[in-house]
Amino acid sequence: MKVATAAYNLDWLDSWAQYEDKLEAWVAEAAGQGADLLVFPEYGAMELSTLDGAKVAGDLERSIRAVSDRMEDVRNVHVRLAKQYKTYILGASAPVLVGSGRPVNRAEFYAPDGRHDHQDKQIMTRFERESWDIAPGGPLKLFDTALGKIGVLICYDSEFPLLGRALREADLILMPSCTEALSGYWRVRIGAMSRALENQCVTVMASLVGANEWSEAVDMNTGTGGVFGPPDVGFPPTGVLSEGVLNQPGWTYAQVDPSVIANVRADGHVLNRSHWVEQEPRVDSVTISAL
């Protein structure tokens, strides 16, 4: 399969049609390159708040509600594009109000036949907890697709090994991210590469990029797209299948062969995924040694 992962820049939108045109241009470009799976970043939907004007876009709470209110329309556009271009799409995540509670950070996953489901972020960053009051969402899911089993760890979630381990049956783990500084980008990237090593799978990182003075939430973003695997049999010795240019908007592409994933899991130089359980009795028996 061919994977396309985005370094996605936000725009000020003057009309809904402008958003539809932008999204279709991105999808058409990747599909035109033969991509079977497209991955957009965390909080890429925040540009929709600009449709309600500068006062709304610049206010944390009002921007959350403005974006959440448009997500049904966003879903309809993605369903149409996934069917039209015959590709899987992980849409950019958005704050979504669920019932009468606080919003969750939700990424919707679309299949070429129009079916869709979502993955919510599990663990909130300090900004999401302390400023936005974003809530942890529903459980982790494993999507069984024609491309293989696919999981999603949204940004900060990628930095937690046990969340990655819960998705150990996944052939690919998608990691949409939104990071302000270079250090944040590298935290997620290190998480992505670590989960690829531990699970002997492929991880796909998408990033929000660029400056947006109109927003308090996504005002500065650093990153690029990247596709990673274990540095082992059938993969590059660095584990890097592909990486984009830092902060340059556009797609990063990589070819992913599921048979190579199956082979490294069965007969790699190391077998991290199978040997994971050998940690458990050893970490439970840690002793203190005074020197």
Automatic annotation (TrEMBL):
Q: Which sequence ranges are marked TM in the entry?
A: none
Instruction: Pinpoint the CN hydrolase domain residues.
Output: 1-258
What InterPro entries does the entry give? Answer: C-N_Hydrolase (IPR003010), C-N_Hydrolase_sf (IPR036526)
Annotated PROSITE patterns: CN_HYDROLASE
What Pfam families does UniProt report for this protein, alphabetically?
Answer: CN_hydrolase
Keywords tagged on the record: Hydrolase
Q: Which GO terms describe its molecular function?
A: hydrolase activity
Origin: domain of life:
Bacteria
Q: Which CDD domains match?
A: nitrilase_Rim1_like (cd07574)
The protein in question is named Carbon-nitrogen hydrolase family protein
Q: Which organism's genome codes for this protein?
A: Ruegeria haliotis
Q: Write the lineage as a comma-separated list.
A: Bacteria, Pseudomonadati, Pseudomonadota, Alphaproteobacteria, Rhodobacterales
